[in-house]
Amino acid sequence: MRVGLMSVAIGALLLPACSPSPAPVTEAPPPVAAAPAFDAANPPALVETHFEIAGDRVNGIVYLANGAGPHPTVVLLHGFPGNERNLDLAQDMRREGFNVLFFHYRGAWGSEGEYSLPHVIEDVAGATAYLRANAAALRVDPARILLVGHSMGGFAALQGGARDPAIKCVAGIAPAEMGAIATQLEQSPEGAAGFAAYADQLDMLEGLDGREFVADILANRDTYDLAKLAPQMVGKSILIVLGDKDTDIPNPMAMTAAYKATKGVKVSGVELSGDHSFSWSRKDLSDTVTDWAKGCAGSP
Q1: Fewer CB within a 10 Å sphere, N or C end of the chain?
Q2: CA 242 to CA 173: how far, in whole Å?
Q3: How far apart (Å, rounded) are the C-alpha atoms in residues 168 and 157?
Q4: What is the pLDDT of residues 50-109, one digit of tens each?
């Protein structure tokens, strides 16, 4: 604490001889939060891995949580084409005790095979099968595997969850509602041609033909319609996160409404301030997903 100028002047008048100035008072630094206990035998780690789906090598990484576990484990699914990988969520969820598997679909970013929506859906099942087969080595609790996906990955997570009765927790972050997108493509030939041209220039997606991609979406609109998956979601907990300034996802509320109207489906709908990638609300996004995961899968 600094002594005021007036106090110094009065002290000089009252004391005939110099006296030592009082020692400055310093505030103690705030206590440092204790780091979580480190399990030297089962430390947190980043494991490069690969597994096969229909004979094609799929590349991935596993974020292993600290401790022997077994840990609830998230399959983190990226979008189309996968520029935003949401690995900040992987780090945050691992810190909270979750393992996280991130991988590239067949034909995407160096994984073998050809990219297509049917393959994307099948690859979710391939990833969960890999985790179950390697549960002991990866410290995975096979009864607590969660699917979390963004954009096309949200589509994949919901499609994969609907097909796997053992999956009880599914989160779609700005999920691509392909049924509604099919309607848009049908109503706008120019938009469909532009989307096909965009797909054709995505060199990181092997074997993708834009016109065939659009044709597949139109031909399978009912299968790809996420709202129509509601009966297959009974007994599951579903998180849908939307951005209030997201202009990329058509009619997302119809899907949420269909799930809420289906008895036995537990739905949490959350709207955050954000664009399609939640560019300025990443912490809010991570906290939302992590808190939901803890509530769904139980404390790690």
Answers
A1: N
A2: 6
A3: 12
A4: 999 999 999 999 999 999 999 999 999 999 999 999 999 999 999 999 999 999 999 999
Residue 160 lies in a domain: yes
In the numeric block, which tokens belong to residue 284? 């809010």
Give the torsion sign (CA, 129, 134, 135, 140): negative
Asked if 239 and 247 count as a contact pair (C-beta separation under 8 A), the reply is no
Does 19 map to a domain?
A: no
Pairing of strands 71-77, 56-64: unpaired
| Largest distance between two CA atoms of the chain | 100
pLDDT for the residue numbered 8? 33
CA distance 169 to 93: 15
Q: Is 143 left (phi over 0), alpha (psi -120 to 50) or beta?
A: alpha
Q: Is residue 2 part of a domain?
A: no
The verdict on residue 164 lying in a domain is yes
CATH number, domain with residue 59: 3.40.50.1820
- For residues 73 and 14, give the distance between their C-alpha atoms in angstroms, rounded to a whole number: 73
Strands (E) across 129-255 are located at 140-150, 169-173, 237-243
**Closest alpha carbon to 240 in 123, 249, 232, 208:** 249
Q: How far is CA 145 from the centre of its chain?
A: 14
User: What domain range includes position 140?
Assistant: 45-297
- Contacts of residue 292, defined as CB under 8 A and 6 or more positions apart, other chains included, come to 171, 237, 239, 268
